[in-house]
Structures are given as structure tokens and as C-alpha cells.
Specification:
With 355 residues, the protein is mainly β. 15% of the residues lie in helices and 47% in strands. It contains 4 helices and 18 strands. It has helices at 19-26, 302-310, 315-331, 337-354; strands spanning 45-49, 52-53, 63-68, 81-88, 97-104, 109-116, 121-142, 147-154, 158-169, 174-181, 186-195, 200-209, 214-223, 229-238, 243-252, 260-269, 275-284, 290-299. The chain has an 18-stranded mixed β-sheet that branches. β1 and β2 (52-53) form a beta hairpin.
Length: 355
């Protein structure tokens, strides 16, 4: 790999970034590719190993491979060249597209794009496993009343996963993205979304951290036109000496009247040695809007724990149940039952190990 140029933590947008872990991940020794199964869903199945498509184990369906140009994001710009592309015509609807990314320590950058014409509908499920630096850039363009649902599972056992998304939503378009960070590697989730007239953007999920791990999310939604709605609901659970950081911003342009924006950031500390950083941000220029945000960090309710133990529930089990309930609303946004069940199992597996 050539000399790696990274942003500085002196920049506000990168103040919590674990750039040291990213550099270390880029230099990891190769590992054997772990086994991972696709979910029991119809539709296309793509397996990428270190950013290269495993053609013999993939079914492209409506997805094609194309040469894609990078953006100007400090990390996303490294993802260029051959990547995957999903383009749907007007009124088209595709079965769920599953994409599994396996990292084995090799150089691993992959660009992608999703372009939905007016009234098109698509659903994407992505899973990240293995170890190394997995770096992705996704460009999303949604036409009038198009709908895209994305579900992302970050399960790498080591290294670093950096995800950058640039999305543009047309009139009445809808983007719903749910992310679960339940691996043991470092994570940076980074998104810039521009919403048009009456567009709807929902971006959220859960970051579960343990050990010395650090996970971070930074999402900015810009309402450029009137009547838009956005919701950012994030939950963070930090154990041991780990750190979870959430930054959620909403910008409302001068002409974006009647905008309704909501942010809900909540953190749960399983140990007092852990850290949760929360940063909601509103930048409003219009004068006829309804925007709200909330941010809280706390520990498990001692009274609830005592009550459950008094009813014969072991302490660890009581902790798991309460923590699971804390995370649940961030995953309930996933409409597909099979996908939602897989995310819940990932969260349960993390809890079983962390508690």
C-alpha cells in the first residue's frame, strides 16, 4: 500500500476517530477467510473477499460490476475502481440484495452505487466479517418517491471497518438505514445525506463495544427543500474500557420550511471505566420547522436489576435482558423479519460474551 493519508483528530469531525487503530488494521498480517452464511432470503447474493468478487459463490441478479469514481471524503476517496452497482428503472422492485464482505488482511477498498429511478424499490443487506481494514464508499441517488432500505451488520473480529455514504434523495423519496456494530474491531460510520422536497431519511442503529474497542458514527442530514422528515435514532452500549461515539447533525436550509427533524442518542455504560460520547447538532436557518434532539448516558437501573434478581433471575441474565431492551428500538426499524432476527441474534451473541 502507498503512504496512507489520514485526516487529523484536530478536525472537529474526526475528534473521536481511532486513526491509530485504522493504521494498524491496514498493516495486519493475512488471516484465513472465515465462513459466513447468507440469510435465507430470495434475491441476489454477492460475496466479496478483500474487495474482489468471488464469482463462483455469487449470484448478481440486478447488480452489475462497474468502474466507479471516488468521492472527496478522506477515507472514501481510497475506494475507487471496480465496484458493485445497483440501478433500477422506474417502478421497478428488486428482491433483497445480500452482500457479504470478508476481510483477510489484504488491501481492501470497494466503491459502490445505488441509483433508483422514480418509484423504484430496493432492499440491501450487508455483512462485514474477518479482520483487516475494510474501506467502503457508497453513493446513493433516489428518484421521485423511490424507496431504499439498507441493513448493515459490522461483525469484523479485528481490524477496522470504515463506511462512507453520500446520498441524494429526490422529491418524496425514502431512505431507511439501520447499522449494527457488534464485532470486535474498530468502526467509523460516516454519512452525508441531502433530502429534497418531502423526502424522508431515517438513519440509526446500535454500536456495541467492549474491551479496548472504539466505534464511532458521524451522520449529517441536510434538508435542502421543504416538507422533509428525518429521524436519527442511535443506541450505544459500552463495556470494559471501550468507547462508543455518536455524532448526529441536522441542517435545515433557508428554503426548507416545514421540516421535521428528530434525533435520539442514548448511551449505556456497563462499566464505569467505559466511555460514551454523544453529540447531537442542529443547524437551522428556516423559521417554520419542528426539530428536536435528546442525548443521555447512564447505567442500568439498579432498582430494575434488584427486582429481577428478587424474582430469581441471575444477575448476568438480568443485565442481558435490560441491555437487550435498551438496544431493541434501534433494530425494530428493520421491516423484514428474517433480517431483523439476524440482527437481534448478533446483538444477543455480543451480550452473551460481554456480560
Amino acid at each position: 500500500m502507498s503512504v496512507l493519508e489520514l485526516p487529523s483528530t484536530r478536525e472537529e469531525a474526526w475528534r473521536w476517530a481511532d486513526l491509530g487503530a485504522l493504521s494498524a488494521a491496514a498493516a495486519l498480517a493475512p488471516i484465513a477467510a472465515p465462513q459466513v452464511d447468507f440469510l435465507d432470503l430470495p434475491g441476489a447474493r454477492l460475496l466479496f473477499i478483500d474487495g474482489a468478487l468471488a464469482e463462483d459463490r455469487s449470484q448478481l441478479g440486478p447488480v452489475t460490476l462497474a468502474d466507479l469514481t471516488p468521492g472527496d471524503h478522506p477515507l472514501g476517496r481510497h475506494a475507487h475502481g471496480r465496484g458493485w452497482s445497483l440501478r433500477l428503472d422506474k417502478d421497478a422492485a428488486a428482491d433483497p440484495v445480500q452482500i457479504v464482505h470478508v476481510a483477510t488482511g489484504a488491501e481492501n477498498h470497494l466503491p459502490s452505487e445505488i441509483v433508483l429511478a422514480d418509484d423504484a424499490v430496493a432492499q440491501i443487506v450487508e455483512t462485514y466479517v474477518g479482520a483487516g481494514w475494510s474501506n467502503r464508499h457508497l453513493r446513493v441517488t433516489l428518484g421521485k418517491a423511490a424507496r431504499l432500505m439498507r441493513s448493515v451488520r459490522v461483525l469484523q473480529a479485528g481490524g477496522f471497518t470504515s463506511l462512507r455514504e453520500d446520498a441524494t434523495l429526490g422529491t418524496g423519496a425514502s431512505l431507511v438505514t439501520t447499522v449494527l456494530g457488534a464485532g470486535a474491531g474498530g468502526t467509523r460510520i460516516d454519512a452525508q445525506i441531502t433530502a429534497g422536497n418531502a423526502a424522508f431519511a431515517e438513519y440509526g442503529g446500535a454500536l456495541l463495544t467492549a474491551g479496548e474497542q472504539r466505534q464511532e458514527c458521524a451522520v449529517r442530514i441536510r434538508h435542502a427543500e421543504p416538507n422533509g422528515q428525518s429521524h436519527q435514532l442511535w443506541r450505544a452500549v459500552a463495556a470494559d474500557r471501550s468507547t462508543a461515539s455518536l455524532a448526529a447533525a441536522v441542517e435545515v436550509a433557508r428554503d426548507a420550511q416545514k421540516t421535521d427533524g428528530e434525533q435520539s442518542l442514548r448511551g449505556l455504560l456497563l462499566n464505569r471505566t467505559a466511555t460514551v460520547n454523544l453529540k447531537p447538532e442542529l443547524g437551522i436557518v428556516a423559521d417554520d420547522v419542528k426539530c428536536a434532539h435528546g442525548a443521555t448516558v447512564g447505567e442500568l437501573d439498579a432498582r430494575a436489576l434488584f427486582y429481577m434478581q428478587s424474582r430469581g433471575i441471575p444477575h448476568a441474565r438480568a443485565q442481558a435482558l435490560l441491555t437487550r431492551a435498551f438496544v431493541a428500538d434501534s433494530l425494530d426499524r428493520i421491516a423484514n423479519e428474517t433480517i431483523r432476527a439476524a440482527f437481534e441474534q448478533d446483538a444477543d451473541a455480543w451480550l452473551a460474551e460481554a456480560l
